[in-house]
Amino acid sequence: MAAVITDRITKTADVCGGKACIAGHRIRVLDIVLRHENLGMSADEIVADYPQLSLSDVHAALAYYFDNVEEIREDVRGNTDIAEQLRASLPSKLKAKLLNGAD
User: Fold this and answer.
1) Does the 3-100 domain belong in CATH 1.10.10.10?
2) Looking at the whole model, is its pTM more than 0.70?
3) pLDDT digit string (tens) for 62-90?
4) Which neighbouring-strand residues pair with 28?
């Protein structure tokens, strides 16, 4: 992996569960990838969402993703599994109220 990417992307056990993050921030590579791939945001739009990042930080995160696609996709699957478990264990009170009518 290029030195620029390894300088800008870190994995620390006690930061974001050890997931790949932009160095010096608690912003995961996954967060950048989801905005880029799923929401169709450009690197400039992502910087607008995260003004504490530089454009080169975002590009480093995307480069890390393209070099480690399976790792990041596994992170996405893990997040999806956690979300499904939470939905199952914590049913929505609003949804129940809407389905049953207002009391």
Assistant:
1) yes
2) yes
3) 999 999 999 999 988 877 766 677 777 77
4) 21
